[in-house]
Specification:
With 131 residues, the protein is an alpha+beta fold. It has two helices and six strands; from the N terminus they run E-E-E-H-E-H-E-E. It has a single domain (22-116), classed as RutC-like (60s Ribosomal Protein L30, Chain: A), CATH 3.30.1330. The longest helix is centred in the middle third of the chain and has 19 residues, at 36-54.
Length: 131
């Protein structure tokens, strides 16, 4: 049986869970006062940072589930998303409207492949905690 690695563990969640070479994590904007462009840009940058910590990158994304507080924000999301995802490496993706915490406009649930040779513990303590 392979080990389950949990990083940034709190009573309610882990910042990331890695099992059998697959990482699972969630990102919300660090600054919910930003508009949809600002929040999506923050979340995408945070995903990049988390991917680097776990030994992965955008080309290794398997699935991204996107929750928007208002589907009218879809075009703004897609404009940023389309320039962020490397051509030929789009993950499976769903985008739905959901009731998010006040002021939050976007939340993303990420599944990504991790390189087997990488130790995701390096630098983990430098990641700021979420709400």
């Amino acid at each position: 049986m392979s080990e389950i690695q949990r990083h940034g563990v709190t009573r309610r969640w882990s910042d990331a869970v890695i099992h059998q070479g697959t990482a699972h994590f969630v990102e919300v904007a660090d600054d919910p006062e930003q508009d949809i462009h600002g929040q999506v840009a923050q979340v995408l940058a945070q995903i990049d940072g988390r991917l680097a910590l776990i030994g992965s990158d955008r080309t290794r994304l398997l699935q991204v589930l996107i929750y928007l507080s208002d589907l009218a924000d879809g075009p703004a999301l897609n404009a940023l998303w389309d320039t962020w995802v490397p051509e030929g490496h789009a993950p499976a993706r769903a985008c739905v409207q959901a009731g998010l915490a006040p002021r939050y406009r976007v939340e993303m649930v990420i599944t990504a492949a991790v390189l087997a040779s990488h130790s995701p513990l390096v630098g983990w303590d430098s990641v700021p905690p979420r709400l």
